[in-house]
Amino acid sequence: MIYDYHVHTNHSFDSRAVMSDVCAEAVERGLQEICFTEHYAVNPVLPTYGHLDFTQYLAEIERCKQQYEGKLIIKAGIELCEPHYMQTQYEEALAHQPLDFILGSVHNMNERKLRLFLAQEGIDHYELYFREVLHMVQHADIDIIAHLDLLKRYAVGNIGNYKLSDYEDVIEAILQTAITRHIGIEINTSGWRGGAGEPFPSREVLQLYCQMGGELLTIGSDSHFVEHTGAEISDAIQLAKECGFKAIYTYNQRQPQAVALDKYYFDKK
Ligand SMILES: [Zn+2]
Ligand SMILES: [Zn+2]
């Protein structure tokens, strides 16, 4: 059993992948389940705003479910930008959408992209970024924190990577709040493909979460291209095992269900 719980298609503003092509690739790669997680924002100043049409998105998922019945389990998810702001608008927008899974993301700081945020001088970027993630996990209605230390993707060619020991207080607060609120974290494999050279979050953060009693964990490629569907998922499963996790989770109508990690096998093609 292998799955991918972070996948974009052309229902996201920054992807041109066609959903049925992604499903075909998933089957080809031996995945049994896939969860689409398109970008969505209610804030009109963000680039994500206004792209996703729920009716079209959910209809295409239904068509793919029929087309791939018996071959691939397909879930309807979403990735929200800064869902701790404009919460009433998010609630209204999502109230009647039959979503299986919600990722919460900090993609912007003060409504500006992370690259621009990093150009600001005289501030501790990582501290502020993690404080923003903490704010999100304290307030937002989400299932999983997406790419918890995403800032390092943009920081590696700039201010560099961070040391857990320098930000342990705020990262522990994020993880403790997540555990208390039944929110999980993901292993986002896109970090391996980019300059960071390691997943989001790092092995050390994953180990800390596991030591603190965190259990809710998903794995996703964050693919925006057909050929990245399921990328490095088996490496992430291996990493989860090494960090001490016993299971990863699937979501159905936002209810988590554990799948024991020893049930996962690798059929690398
Ligand atoms: Zn994201
Ligand atoms: Zn994403």
Structure explained in plain terms:
The protein is α/β, with parallel strands linked by helices. It has one domain (3-263): Alpha-Beta Barrel (TIM Barrel), CATH 3.20.20.140. Helix content is 35%, strand content 20%. It has ten helices and eleven strands. A seven-stranded parallel sheet has the order 1-2-3-4-7-8-9. A two-stranded antiparallel ribbon has the order 5-6. A two-stranded antiparallel ribbon has the order 10-11. Helix 2 links the parallel strand 2 (33-40) and strand 3. Helix 5 packs parallel to helix 7. It is globular. The mean pLDDT is 96. The structure holds zinc ion (2 copies). One zinc ion binds at residues 79, 105, 107, 146-147.
The level 1 CATH classification is Alpha Beta
CATH homologous superfamily classification: Metal-dependent hydrolases
Task: Estimate the strand proportion.
Answer: 15-25%
Helical coverage, percent range: 25-40%
CA(first)-CA(last) distance: 15 Å
Question: What's the helix and strand layout?
Answer:
Layout: E1 3-7, H1 19-28, E2 33-40, H2 54-67, E3 73-81, H3 87-94, E4 101-105, E5 108-109, E6 112-113, H4 114-119, H5 125-139, E7 144-145, H6 151-155, H7 168-180, E8 184-188, H8 190-193, H9 203-211, E9 217-220, H10 233-242, E10 247-252, E11 255-260
The site of one zinc ion has 5 residues, from loops.
Would you summarize the structure shown here?
The protein is an alpha/beta fold and 269 residues long.
